[in-house]
Amino acid sequence: MKKQGTLLKMKTELNTPVNYFLTLGDEVICMNDLLNKDITLRFLGEIHCIRCGRLTKKSFHQGYCYPCYRTAPETDDCILKPELCSAQEGISRDMEWSKTHCLQDHYVYLAVSSGLKVGVTRHTQIPTRWIDQGASYAIKIAKTPNRYTAGLLEVDLKKHFADKTNWRNMLSNKIDKEIDLLQEKRRAKDSVYKEYVHYFLDDNEITFIEYPVDDFPAKVNSVNFDNEPEIKGKLTGIKGQYLIFEGGLVFNVRRHNGYEVELLIG
After folding, report:
1. In this structure, are residues 114 and 99 in contact, taking their beta carbons and an 8 Å threshold?
2. Nearest residue to 141 via CA among 88, 81, 83, 198
């Protein structure tokens, strides 16, 4: 069986385990069904901007051509650093986009993907954001009216909490399972400036996430189309936005947004 189209990050559905769906052209492929099957991903030599469709020799910011990277609201500085958002002041690359993405309720959360980390995401991105990061469990700790305020709170919390995921440990399932998120939430509330305390939530629900992985590799080796135009092997798991192959090869789907590919099954 052969499928062809432009690669985009996999869509997900919270279930036990998470359901993953890859769209190629008009086809939607349930990736869970491909576990323990031999698959081949072949790069067809073209990269298209996921915003404007322009042919580009190089992908920027996970899928954009250089002009869009420089001008699109999706690639503005506040995407990686929410505290730099200025939409609340009426300043944006695209104010209409910011109204639906920045000037909306945002959550500050704690998640365990390998160790404990703090993060920020728009209210509509829960639990998608956690799944994309490969979190094993997570909790919402605060709710703010916009991205900027969430960013300020995150900056304050980063004095006490990490904000990065060790992706190698995440994919090897080297998870600190002794972390008490309720205790860490209390510590976070006690750590922040008093002006942020009223944003903290009473909701203490912890979301636990399981992934479709049959065999976690002891050691991972990242592969990409820039070095390997063809990636093949038995699919043994999916976690975050990574495909895990037998032998520890891992492929980051999201990193290859916009790449034209051919998927062969079997």
Report:
1. no
2. 198
pLDDT, tens digit (0-9, with 9 covering 90-100), for 223-262: 999 999 999 999 999 999 999 999 999 999 999 999 999 9
- pLDDT digit string, tens, across residues 4-13: 999 999 999 9
Task: Name 42's bridge partners.
Answer: 230, 262
Residues 55 and 91 in one domain: no
Find, among 216, 220, 219, the residue nearest to 236 by Cα: 216
Domain shared by 204 and 91, yes or no: yes
Q: Tell whether 220 and 116 lie within a shared domain.
A: no
Once rounded to an integer, what is the mean pLDDT over residues 137-162? Answer: 98
In a domain, 227, yes or no: yes
Residue 138 and residue 101 in contact, taking contact as beta carbons nearer than 8 Å: no
Residue at token pair 């190629």 = 24
Q: pTM for the whole thing? A: 0.96
- Residue 25 vs residues 5, 7, 179, 209, 262: alpha-carbon distances, Å: 5, 9, 42, 29, 10
| 46 bridge partner residues | none
C-alpha–C-alpha distance, residues 255 and 233, integer Å: 19
Amino acid at 75: T
* 71 domain-assigned: no
Domain that holds residue 200: 76-208
Are 167 and 106 members of one domain? yes
How far is 100 from 22, CA to CA, in rounded Å?
Answer: 25
